[in-house]
Amino acid sequence: MDSGKILTSLAVCLTFWITIVLLLLFSNGDMGNLAIATPIASNIEKEESAVSKLPIPTSPSTSSTETSQPLHTEIAGEIRHGESFSQAMKRLSIVGSVRSDIIKGFGQTLDFKVLQPGDHFTILLDQDNSITRATYTSGLLNTHILARTTDGSYMASRQAVPLEYRIERISGVIESSLYSAFAGLGEEPKIIHAFADIFASKIDFNTETRTGDRFELLVEKYYKGDVFAGYGKILVARYQKGDVKFEGYHFASANTPSGYFDENGEALGTWFIRSPIPFGRVTSRFTMRRKHPIDGVVRPHLGIDLAAPLGTPVMATAEGKVEYIGRKGGFGKTIILRHNNGYKTYYGHLNGYKKGLKKHRIVMQKEIIGYVGSTGISTGPHLDYRIRHNGVFRNPFGIKFQAKTVLQDEELALYRQASAQTAELFNTNTSEKILQVKNVTLSEDHAISLL
To answer: How far apart are the first and last CA of the chain?
Structure first.
């Protein structure tokens, strides 16, 4: 046999045995697994990718409908003008039982008589339409929280509010009026009226202010962050009228009600304040000869006419009893108050009376009794104010009344100690407006009184 045939035979044999070996290996399964590994892995990845995009199956005890519903419902709203809290909730379709629980719960801390338009609230209800939590917020400082306790009852609390307390100096010069001077300093009407009220028995700011008069005071102010939250007490006030200085320091003790006193411990408040309208404009004075602006007849004008916008509140100038309330000829709607020691005060041309005011009712000094009008014989909105003493009409701006209180003995000593500390701060020779700063927390245990 030649060499070529031998090589061919060897090649055939070698191929045969290689084939046998491969077949044996294939029948063992390892090669099969290796051969299909890649396509199987690829299929698994595709299946896993598809599953991740599907919703996770719920447990047998939880249906897909239940899991799609929220666990709580939050309702938010605010009080509209002329609306009560209950009416606001009813407008938002809150059921009666929930409204009742809310009113009862918040009644622990919230005075529903002082709610204001713009106050806002939120109510969180669970799936059973029961209250989980509710809040009521009025302004910067009053947030009330109602929460359900473990026994199912409701507990209300007032949220603590961190504040910055300052003692600030306010000072200025009169150019046209006290009101304009304060407003020009960026101060709010509340502090203007509070300042005027301190000297209400000493100065008539309608007629007695002059260009160049000076005023100065120390007042407590509260801030929530950078936002002004309100005025506290005026600690001391001063009004310089030419060479005459009026000054009053705040003082209160267990035996002396809060008030303002001069350096001798004599209260600035007297039995009568000088004007029933702090910023009314005098249009007619007390005189025995005045030509009437309507009928032209010259006759006595036994009171003071104070012009003010229609509806301006009118205060009782002293504590007294309502002797008359109703129409009285040319005076229109009139109130007459009877006071101690033979005094009576008259308030004419009113637009209306304070709600609930009746004959024989006792009213307090500075209590609002009516509103400026133009009833009766009148040329425009104003108040005709008169004082009668033992049957004789007197000039309201010409009578000097005694102080209500003069501090004595221990009370005088306490006052002098307290006022000396305030005076030291008040008379500090500095141009700084802010004299003291500290952090306080408004809470149920630490209340503050704002103007």
So the answer is: 131
Closest of 323, 328, 317, 313 to residue 362, by C-alpha:
323
What is the distance between the alpha carbons of residues 32 and 25, in angstroms, rounded to a whole number?
9
Measured CA to CA in angstroms, residue 339 lies from 3, 215, 343, 360 at distances of 154, 33, 5, 12
pLDDT at position 24, please?
55
Q: Residues 216, 191: contact at Cβ < 8 Å?
A: no
In angstroms, the CA 17 to CA 14 distance is: 5
CB pairs under 8 A, 24+ apart, for 422-429?
422/218, 422/235, 422/236, 422/249, 422/250, 423/236, 423/249, 425/167, 425/218, 426/216, 426/218, 426/235, 426/236, 426/238
Helix (H, G, I), strand (E, B) or coil at 207: coil
Radius of gyration of the chain (CA): 42
- The answer to whether residue 410 scores a pLDDT higher than 80 is yes
DSSP 254: S
Average pLDDT over residues 353-372: 96
State residue 425 phi and psi, 5-degree precision.
Answer: -70, -40
Quote the pTM value. Answer: 0.70
| Structural domains of the chain, ranges and CATH numbers in brackets | 72-159 (3.10.450.350), 163-270+404-442 (3.10.450.350), 281-394 (2.70.70.10)
- The tokens for 135 are 């809040």
